[in-house]
């Protein structure tokens, strides 16, 4: 302070501002000190005084003074002329908007880049269309439904059934079956079917039925593996039991099917072996009267089941969905 002597009220106010700066060194103290200093030093002239006093140069235009009290590295100060003009403009703006008791300082934090977790609600979520459908069935019957009926609705409901409106197999689906892993499995099934046909006496026509063909991968490998046995493939009538329209289209493409006209009728033929292909929603729809070979891979584990609960006087197979 030998180069910049201060005395009287000015010295007192400067000492107060210096103590305030030291107490707040962990925050952006330099900017705060520059904003407070004009009001503190200007109080000696009275509330209505127009006299304006500036901070000493080593306080207002240099960060070396604050560096003595803070371990945080400071950036190089801007040129003194530019820094002084900026400080004066900022101080004038604050003085013009402040009252006699001084301007209020406000600090705002930009939280735009912060993680905002979704709000958690304890309110019950809205029911899906399938849940509403199940509840309507239970309400209409004034009682519970069986587990088998519940599973059938969940799996094969025309609008919301699990298998009905999407391809659930493969990498893009929910699970992978063995035919999707290697073609060898389906080719071996083809050799087994051809041997069984020979054991039947090589009938001219035989129904080859697959239950739940999935994507049709197994059947395509079967036909490819037995394509060299021409008499066998000529005898085939291929019947696919599939209730999903979406999977029927996938099977149509996998088996390389084409529609052709035979007289006044149209039929679908697989170009893998030249055999006709038919689709049915259930096994009872498959025409009878021919020797039959049935293939069902990972099919029965997807069927609705009956689960029984044995009590002292009754056996129940019912469930109910509560709100």
TrEMBL record:
GO biological process: methylation; mitochondrial respiratory chain complex I assembly
Protein origin, superkingdom: Eukaryota
Coiled coil segments of this chain: none
Gene3D superfamilies associated with the record: 3.40.50.12710
Places the protein is found: Mitochondrion
Keywords assigned by UniProt, alphabetized: Methyltransferase, Mitochondrion, Transferase
Class of the enzyme per the UniProt entry, highest EC level: transferase
Main subcellular location: mitochondrion
GO CC list: mitochondrion
Chain positions covered by the region annotation Disordered: 66-103
EC number: 2.1.1.320
Transmembrane regions listed in the UniProt entry: none
Keyword Amino-acid biosynthesis in annotation: no
Molecular-function GO terms, alphabetical: protein-arginine omega-N symmetric methyltransferase activity
Pfam families the UniProt entry points to: Methyltransf_28 (PF02636)
Reactions mediated catalytically: L-arginyl-[protein] + 2 S-adenosyl-L-methionine = N(omega),N(omega)'-dimethyl-L-arginyl-[protein] + 2 S-adenosyl-L-homocysteine + 2 H(+)
Family, per entry: Belongs to the NDUFAF7 family.
Record function comment: Arginine methyltransferase involved in the assembly or stability of mitochondrial NADH:ubiquinone oxidoreductase complex (complex I).
PANTHER family xrefs: PROTEIN ARGININE METHYLTRANSFERASE NDUFAF7, MITOCHONDRIAL
Protein name: Protein arginine methyltransferase NDUFAF7
Lineage: Eukaryota, Viridiplantae, Streptophyta, Embryophyta, Tracheophyta
């Amino acid at each position: 302070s030998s180069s910049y002597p201060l005395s009287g009220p000015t010295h007192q106010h400067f000492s107060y501002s210096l103590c305030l700066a030291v107490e707040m060194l962990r925050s952006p103290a330099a900017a705060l000190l520059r904003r407070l200093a004009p009001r503190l030093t200007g109080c000696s002239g009275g509330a209505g005084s127009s006299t304006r006093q500036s901070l000493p140069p080593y306080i207002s235009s240099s960060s070396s003074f604050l560096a003595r009290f803070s371990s945080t590295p400071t950036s190089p100060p801007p040129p003194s002329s530019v820094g002084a003009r900026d400080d004066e403009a900022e101080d004038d703006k604050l003085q013009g908007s402040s009252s006699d008791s001084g301007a209020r300082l406000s600090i705002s934090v930009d939280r735009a880049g912060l993680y905002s977790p979704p709000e958690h609600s304890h309110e019950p979520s809205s029911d899906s269309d399938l849940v509403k459908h199940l509840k309507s069935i239970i309400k209409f019957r004034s009682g519970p439904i069986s587990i088998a009926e519940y599973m059938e609705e969940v799996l094969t409901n025309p609008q919301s059934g699990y298998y009905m409106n999407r391809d659930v197999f493969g990498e893009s689906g929910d699970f992978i079956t063995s035919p999707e892993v290697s073609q060898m499995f389906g080719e071996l099934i083809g050799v087994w079917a051809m041997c069984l046909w020979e054991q039947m006496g090589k009938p001219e026509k035989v129904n080859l039925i697959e239950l739940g063909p999935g994507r049709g991968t197994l059947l395509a490998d079967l036909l490819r593996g037995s394509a060299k046995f021409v008499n066998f493939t000529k005898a085939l009538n291929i019947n696919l039991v599939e209730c999903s329209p979406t999977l029927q289209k996938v099977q149509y493409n996998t088996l390389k099917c084409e529609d052709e006209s035979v007289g006044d009728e149209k039929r679908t033929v697989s170009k893998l072996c030249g055999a006709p292909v038919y689709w049915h929603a259930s096994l009872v729809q498959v025409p009878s009267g021919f020797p039959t070979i049935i293939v069902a891979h990972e099919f029965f584990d997807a069927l609705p089941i009956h689960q029984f609960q044995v009590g002292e006087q009754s056996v129940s197979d019912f469930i109910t969905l509560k709100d």
